[in-house]
Amino acid sequence: MFTAAFGAPETILLAGLGGLLVGSFLNVVIRRVPLMLEREWALQSAPTPTEAIPSEATPSEATPPFNVIEPRSHCPHCLAPIRARHLVPVISWLALRGRCASCATPIGARYPLVEIGTALAFAIVAARLPFDLSLLDALLVTGFLIALAMIDFDTQYLPDQLTLPLLWLGLAASVFAPLAPGIDPSQAILGAIAGYLSLWSVYHAFRLLTGKEGMGYGDFKLLAALGAWLGTQAILPIVLLAAIAGSIVGLIGIFVFGRDRNQPIPFGPFLAAAGWLVMTFG
Q: CA angle at residue 195 from 277 to 177, to 5 degrees?
């Protein structure tokens, strides 16, 4: 999609530092958005409101707000609020030796890894794109893709709360600040349609032939969002890259690690990675 336009070192450094901060926020999104969905489903299915909240995922109508902003960051084990000095990306985790400051419960290494991975992804994007609105577009898409990939890896669903905003932002960007040359509103709309229908067709053909569901509707919406940002010409390479990577990982899991061949593998992380590669490297 882009030519090899390398950013200035200070831009790359700034993007990397910003990626650390964004990665810290993405950790909150990755953890809380699935819980928000579970709480919403619990409220919809409960015959009567409960009076207490035994856990984060069992709310009542009178429950205090629970979203990516409220309540403040806390330990999921002891629920103690995390002090501001313990929220510094990566450094705080290292200083605490990967444990909660209040209860000493181990904190998974994935938290700093998401922060470092986001920082590296932001720095690479800044190295590939000129310093203009397209860079801001690409950083925004990168953040969404990291969150979606991790949530799908954990839960095997891609929430509408992220896929649909990514889709609408892509359509809006085609009007005001296209991510790539030639992505006008008509290209964005066609890209969204092509992205959705391509996987929708594969899904129904696979179900007709095998009687099984090969993927979820969240995958359709994610590819539609990528089509809105990158246009129709990006759909085929994204699908091919994702399918090849998914097949390789699946075969390695089966023949090397003994994974059950009937156990589903989330396709969202491969779509997100392929979309990011096509967006960044063409």
A: 65
Which of 131, 163, 188 finishes a domain?
131
Domain boundary among 131, 157, 181: 131
In angstroms, rounded to a whole number, what is the distance separating the alpha carbons of residues 242 and 199? 12
Angstrom CA distances, 18 to 14, 87, 139, 140, stand at 6, 14, 10, 12
pLDDT tens digits for range 174-208: 999 888 888 999 999 999 999 999 999 988 887 78
How does the average pLDDT of the chain come out, rounded?
86
Which domain range does residue 276 map to? 132-282
Check: CB of residue 32 under 8 Å from CB of residue 67: yes
- pTM of this prediction? 0.88
Strand partners, 74: 81
Give the pLDDT confidence score for residue 62 in this predicted structure: 53
Q: In sequence order, what are the residues at sequence separation of 6 or more whose Cβ sits closer than 8 angstroms to the Cβ of residue 155?
A: 34
